[in-house]
Design goal:
Number of domains of chain A: 2
Strand order of the largest sheet of chain B: 1-2-3
CATH topology of the largest domain in chain A: Beta-lactamase
Number of strands of chain A: 21
Oligomer: heterodimer
Distance between the termini of chain A: 140 Å
Radius of gyration of chain A: 37 Å
Structural class of chain B: mainly alpha
Distance between the termini of chain B: 15 Å
CATH superfamily of the largest domain in chain A: DD-peptidase/beta-lactamase superfamily
Strand content of chain A: 15-25%
Largest sheet of chain B: 3 strands, antiparallel
Order of helices and strands of chain B: HHHHHEEEHHHHHHHHHH
Strand content of chain B: under 5%
Shape of chain A: elongated
Number of helices of chain B: 15
Chain lengths: ~625, ~375
């Protein structure tokens, strides 16, 4: 009985257990079905979505920087080149002991502190398998020395790349400009994706103005990478489109000659082809070598350039604003003639000074004894101030301002180099607006000889001279002659723009002024006669002297007695040959003294270099 | 009753050698099949590292050896040893809490000079054995007092292990104990009460959880909130599984696995490698093995001759299933990240040895049945 009960219990428990076990199996089955449902959802229903995500994971795009376009002068001489440049790179994961490796490397490679700082910074940021540059621009000697000892440095490699190089060094740097590493500021004006592989960008000059053309467009490499970014293989490659080559209007031979002609003087010279507006030479002295800027100039070297009292970094040609002085007299003469205020036969008496009616303030002529009775031709040839004081007063500031404006004074010429300043052609409206003061008649007088508020850049003077040489035809100065697609021979010419031609009432007026300018150089009383005597071609010119330092009424100007930085600027404008002008120049020599003595000879050398094809 | 006995006799007469060697051939074949599949996946997941595969083979060898050894011990001996094993296990857990070796922020190891030993592994077997031993002598279903006593036998080691902290093992031990109770006929109303109680205790559990454990739960609830931090595992694993599709990308061709996007790819997340390279079809193949093993285990349990072996066999089989479902649920993103390996596939871990020891017990139960004299 008892035994049977126990047995019965066993049977009961067996059935209980079996029921429970089957229940569990059913539960397991349900859970597995739920899991399989989940997997079906992930692998079949959402398969495409996850495939996309997986592709996004593994495929990365790497930019390939385009090669920068080259820059040539008008004769095909190379001004900006891309040279192979060697850099030293270290892959951290392959280096066992970084400090001692760096120390040993210094036996062969010069490592500056700035190099080390940049390296250390990148070392903390980049993944271990990515090569980090330690030094750029290794010298051939450094490359050779390292290569011999290469086996001692696992993980250290020399890599070749292209770096901008300016073979003419300091020549034409103010026109050409230079490239430098992309900085925060330049990042704002570029398309970041197009520059994703690019390290350098045009900082000044043509390199900056024509950045878009020179740069080209970025290429792309599709690579498969690991989660850490290590490249496993290249899937697809879209090559970059290299930048366009540029042919400048500059004549580098003329440019070099012009720079040489300045000697130790500071100043600027511009040579234009009046017919086309081509900038043949754009000189700002002193100049400097752009090459150190390409990979970051040493701070000491930069400080030296920056603090140099002669300001080599200052682009005088575009940004130097000088009183044009007597060089405005031909333009003033033309204004007088066109308005019928002076003629072939009218003349003015010059006693050596000028007084406004009803005033006793004397406006001096540069010649204290006076020029006596002068007509327009004499007034230009001998640069009589009194004649032009009188003419300016007759014209009035309004007509004077409007007429000179046609020659480009007071506004940017529009040259295709960044950073040009507009100069200043004063007017009563300007003075009221800027200074809140009325215009005085005395200011009209001194504006008539290019003094007072009147400011002009060397480029503006040269452009105005071109208009004169062209018979009123205005060409916008341009630095680019042609562009060229990389790998192709065809040149794509670049046309200069023109503004409206100056309306001329009487062409004889023009001849009169040009004749006077020829007399400046070729007559025996001309202020620039020193350069005219032996000239094989005829030059039309005008000297100028711009005061840096205001003389008191009775004070005598004595160049020897005053310090150089207060001496007058010497100016000269010219074009030649007179019958068929091929070149127009403007020369400003800072603190050079007299225009005829200092600026004119420099201009003559530039004209010779261009017209006689013989380097000075 | 006679039906029962005749079935046993049929088994015995059909598989004589299995009885002599104390081996259950179907179970052995299925386990070997899973292990072989695991080695193939591991070779790919480990980046074609043959040395890694060899180490895993050695580990599997030890696990299978343990299984054979355990299978030779008859269930009767096992039953007699049960209280001792449990008591020693508790003492060892105490020792770990007092003087265990810290590794990875958790105190789980006992350094025995020649070998580092994880007492919690032993408890995975000792707890269901103990509960089964206790319930073997009482009338089933258990009454409230017996339930309370069993509850204490489960809760004490579980809390000690949770304290180490090792949440995964604590949960496994709790579930192993629970399955014994369930199979012993635990009343449904008590189970519902337990579920409600757990729900009510959730805030309390949350309070005592470690930061990383809380983070895992949060990540599970919304992995996209922290795609580069803790959510990264789940996101990458879902991408791997989903991009595998129906047929997979092919062996050694899984980009998620081969290119390092999938973390822990040879250990806890190896299921995603299988899913990426062999697709839904590959998963079905793996699950076929697993289902076979679980069904075979439950059959052994049903056929077992006494309460102790029945409860133990059922619980051990279910523990194996818990491993599978928790790991795959985690990798597919339907369960929170709990560090449980995929049995016989994941690289490393002492858990495979414990699991195989469990299957040794199953084989012992199956092959030590008393035959009726013919």
């Amino acid at each position: 009985m008892l035994r049977q009960l126990t047995l019965k219990d066993h049977l009961l428990e067996y059935h209980l257990f079996s029921n429970r076990a089957i229940t569990l199996l059913v539960l397991c089955g349900l859970m597995l079905l739920a899991l399989l449902g989940r997997l079906w959802y992930l692998q079949v229903i959402e398969h495409e979505h996850f495939t996309t995500l997986s592709e996004d994971n593994r495929v990365k795009l790497q930019p390939i920087a385009p090669n920068r376009g080259l820059i040539y002068d008008r004769n095909g001489i190379l001004l900006a080149d891309n040279l192979p440049s060697y850099r030293l790179e270290i892959t951290p994961e392959q280096v066992d002991d970084m400090p001692s490796t760096l120390m040993e490397l210094e036996e062969y490679i010069h490592i500056r502190e700035t190099d080390r700082d940049r390296f250390d910074k990148l070392l903390g940021r980049k993944p271990q398998f990515e090569a980090i540059p330690l030094r750029f621009h290794l010298s051939d000697e450094e490359v050779a020395r390292f290569s011999v000892n290469r086996h001692r440095f696992p993980g250290v490699e020399i890599k070749a790349g292209l770096a901008r190089h300016y073979p003419q060094n300091q020549v034409a740097v103010h026109a050409l400009g230079y490239v430098g590493r992309i900085d925060e500021q330049s990042l704002k004006r570029i398309d970041p994706s197009n520059y994703s592989g690019t390290t350098h960008i045009g900082k000044t000059g043509v390199e900056k103005t024509y950045e878009d053309a020179l740069h080209g467009s970025v290429g792309v490499r599709q690579v498969e990478t690991t989660a850490q970014g290590r490249v496993v293989r290249i899937l697809k490659r879209t090559p970059p489109k290299p930048g366009q080559n540029l042919y400048l209007t500059l004549d580098s031979r003329l440019q070099a000659a012009a720079e040489k002609a300045f000697g130790d003087y500071s100043g600027s010279a511009i040579a234009l082809d009046p017919k086309s507006g081509d900038v043949l030479a754009l000189v700002s002295m002193p100049t400097y070598d752009p090459n150190p800027f390409v990979n970051g100039i040493d701070s000491d070297d930069y400080a030296r350039l920056r603090d140099d009292p002669d300001e080599p970094l200052f682009n005088r040609a575009l940004r130097g604003q000088y009183p044009p002085g007597s060089t405005v007299k031909p333009f003033m003469g033309l204004a007088g003639l066109e308005h019928g205020l002076t003629g072939v036969n009218s003349s003015t008496y010059c006693p050596g000074y000028y007084m406004l009616p009803g005033s006793t303030r004397k406006y001096r002529d540069w010649k204290r004894t006076g020029h006596g009775t002068v007509d327009l031709d004499t007034a230009i040839t001998q640069s009589c101030d009194v004649f032009f004081y009188d003419l300016a007063l007759s014209l009035g500031v309004g007509r004077m301002h409007d007429y000179l404006q046609h020659f480009g004074f007071g506004k940017r010429t529009g040259i295709d180099i960044v950073g040009e300043l507009p100069g200043l052609l004063p007017s009563p409206a300007w003075k009221r607006k800027r200074r809140g003061e009325p215009w005085f008649p005395g200011e009209t007088i001194i504006t008539g000889i290019g003094q007072g508020f009147f400011l002009s850049t060397p480029l503006q003077l040269a452009t105005a001279t071109s208009v004169l040489a062209n018979g009123g035809y205005w060409m916008m100065p341009t630095i680019i002659r042609a562009k060229q697609e990389a790998g192709q021979d065809a040149l794509l010419p670049h046309r200069s723009q023109t503004a409206e031609t100056l309306s001329i009432n009487n062409p004889q007026n023009w001849d009169l002024v040009i004749h006077a300018m020829v007399d400046v150089v070729h007559s025996n009383r001309g202020t620039a006669r020193s350069i005219g005597k032996d000239s094989p071609y005829r030059i039309a010119g005008k000297t100028g002297t711009a005061q840096v330092y205001g003389l008191k009424e009775e004070e005598k100007y004595d160049a020897e007695a005053i310090p150089e930085e207060l001496r007058d600027h010497a100016l000269f404008i010219a074009f030649a040959p007179v019958d068929d002008p091929q070149i127009a120049v403007a020369v400003i020599v800072e603190h050079g003294g007299g225009g005829g003595a200092v600026a004119a000879p420099i201009a003559r050398r530039i004209l010779d270099a261009y017209l006689l094809d013989k380097p000075v | 009753m006679s039906y029962q006995l005749s079935t046993s006799r049929d088994d015995a007469s059909q598989g004589g050698w299995q009885y002599r060697l104390h081996i259950d051939a179907p179970l052995l074949l299925a386990l070997a099949g899973v292990s072989a599949l695991g080695l193939i996946v591991l070779y790919s997941a480990g980046g074609e590292d043959m040395e890694l595969v060899q180490r895993q083979m050695l580990r599997l060898g030890i696990a299978f050896g343990t299984m054979f050894a355990v299978a030779q011990v008859s269930p009767g001996v096992l039953q007699r040893l049960t209280p001792w094993a449990f008591t020693i296990g508790i003492l060892l857990l105490l020792a770990v809490l007092v003087g265990g070796t810290t590794s990875g922020g958790a105190q789980r190891w006992l350094d025995l000079y020649f070998v580092r030993f994880q007492p919690s592994e032993m408890m995975k077997l000792a707890v269901p054995m103990m509960v089964a031993w206790y319930l073997a002598d009482v009338r089933l279903p258990p009454n409230r007092f017996q339930l309370l006593a069993s509850g204490i036998m489960i809760a004490v080691p579980m809390l000690m292990i949770a304290k180490q902290p090792d949440l995964g093992t604590a949960l496994l031990i709790a579930s192993a104990g629970f399955f014994v109770l369930f199979l012993a006929g635990l009343y449904w109303r008590i189970m519902i009460f337990l579920i409600v109680l757990t729900g009510a205790a959730a805030p309390l559990i949350w309070h005592y959880m470690h930061d990383y454990q809380r983070q895992r739960v949060l990540t599970f609830l919304s992995p996209e909130t922290d795609p580069l931090g803790t959510g990264y595992h789940i996101i990458q694993s879902k991408i791997a599984i989903g991009s595998g599709g129906l047929f997979g990308k092919g062996w050694l061709n899984g980009t998620q696995s081969q290119l390092d996007f999938l973390p822990e790819r040879s250990t806890d997340f190896i299921f995603a490698v299988l899913a990426e390279e062999f697709g839904f079809i590959g998963i079905l193949a793996l699950f076929a093995f697993y289902v076979f093993i679980v069904v075979r285990g439950i059959l052994i349990a049903i056929q077992a001759q006494d309460t102790y072996t029945r409860l133990l066999a059922g619980s051990l089989t279910m523990t194996f299933f818990v491993y599978v479902i928790v790991n795959t649920g985690m990798v597919t993103g339907i369960l929170p990240v709990v560090g449980l390996p995929l049995p016989a596939i994941s690289y490393g871990g002492t858990s495979i040895v414990t699991l195989m020891a469990g299957f040794g017990i199953l084989m012992s139960i199956q092959t030590h049945r008393k035959l009726l004299p013919t």
